[in-house]
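Example record

Each entry pairs one chain with its bound ligand, tetrahydrodeoxyuridine.
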Amino acid sequence: MRANDMNEKDLIKEAFEAQKKSISPYSKFRVGAALETEDGKIYYGANIENAAYSVTVCAERTALFTALLQGERKFKRIAVVSDSQTITAPCGACRQALNEFCDADFEVIMANKNGEYEIKTLGELLPYGFKGENLE
Ligand code: THU
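Structure tokens for the complex follow.
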């Protein structure tokens, strides 16, 4: 299925597929992400942990970096899932990483383990975000 034909629930399903790839032996908190480009491709991410905990990379960033390395630059939305009862919202570092490459209207679909979800824009999750233009 092309992402263009997908609704939020389909993208969440893709994020649950990505979650299966999570390498999270320390936290046992398995996170999956499915990132949709503007032209309808999907890139998958899962958290990858390290014994030196701070080296861990979140699902959102593995999806984003995978897409960037394939040359993608225009993103529409991301779905994030975990096994939690509560929805999984991107951490501050991931919001900042997304903010570098996505516009304020980029959608973040945050689901719980049952697939119940909330949608916020990146602008709502990271108001007054710092960007390259602020360096000028
Ligand atoms: N984690 C993510 O992958 N994304 C989030 O949005 C929140 C946290 C990961 C990092 C770590 O592997 C585990 O979840 C527990 O914090």
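The mean pLDDT is 96.
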